[in-house]
């Protein structure tokens, strides 16, 4: 009964997906077999790789289902979601076709509803669960008692800090009802002028407030601190880099970890090394996947620098093989799409992330370690390069097909005319600006 109910509420027809796959299956099989033969020459069993990839999943952000924007403009599209229910439906499409995104990361107060157990059931009927809850103390809400214009957890104003603490605790309470076990805290706190706030005392205030939130974490919960170098504060941010993040996480306690958003660093920073460092100290708690060219932190994952994404995953595989206590990162896509259909972007990003993961699995670890030990720089580099050069798309296509997803996600999505149907049923989104 349960299964029938679930299938009937999924937004894309399973017949349509099966028909789409049937037309492409022969060529996928041919490419998969050819790759299998190639990999077997180096002792790699393609089915073992495929089964490992099939287990990897990444969460999508509820806010990513809407078309975001820059601070200059937003260009809405017909059929865009306007509430959490519609966002869940779009996330279900992404998961149905990619079979890689079964969890949604909600954001409060944006996703507030009256009945969270009903929301949890609604998500489950769409094949979805909830991931980390995100608090929002970077913008004011209507009717809010104290403005965050002076900061939130680090505000100079005690009542504002208390309000930010209370909001984070409320997010934990909501998250408990939704089945989440992580609270992600990103604050926009910082300054735009030298001298605006004392750089030491603002961190003291942040730590005191964060300690109050930390104290409210239920038994198995984690608090994930997300650092960001700049924006919205352009002179200094309170948790600006991985150094500030790990120091704060270490002073808060074991249940506090660091979250790496790939777009939140200075240009050319060696992010994979940051990943390795955080893992070394047992503080790697989560990821926000996206890409960045200049300063925008929300470009589609792997769209600018897929090699960097691969190198990050190379460190994650190393971390998996040499786990430190509590290594269980929360993986999420965090992007803002202003010129694409968010469903298409999110599916393409899931594919880019899984591609980087698959290539990292293919690295000859023994060969790499041996070359490193022998100081054979070229062979060590080639161990990475040769995995990176492998076209892993037949593995990913096969994983999707076997799990009930679509071989060509974008083509199947367009054939379904989902967005066109939604544009008839949903009310239009207003104009405006802002990254959401
Ligand atoms: C902001 O830049 C951070 O990446 C946040 O993780 C996230 O994008 C935000 O909370 C949603 O607006
Ligand atoms: Zn982020
Ligand atoms: Zn960001």
UniProtKB/TrEMBL annotation:
Keyword annotations: Isomerase, Manganese, Metal-binding
Taxonomy, superkingdom: Bacteria
Entry GO MF terms: isomerase activity; metal ion binding
Domain Xylose isomerase-like TIM barrel: 116-301
Pfam families for the chain: AP_endonuc_2
UniProt KW Cytoplasm keyword: no
PANTHER family, alphabetized: L-RHAMNOSE ISOMERASE
Protein name: Xylose isomerase-like TIM barrel domain-containing protein
Species of provenance: Hyphomonas johnsonii MHS-2
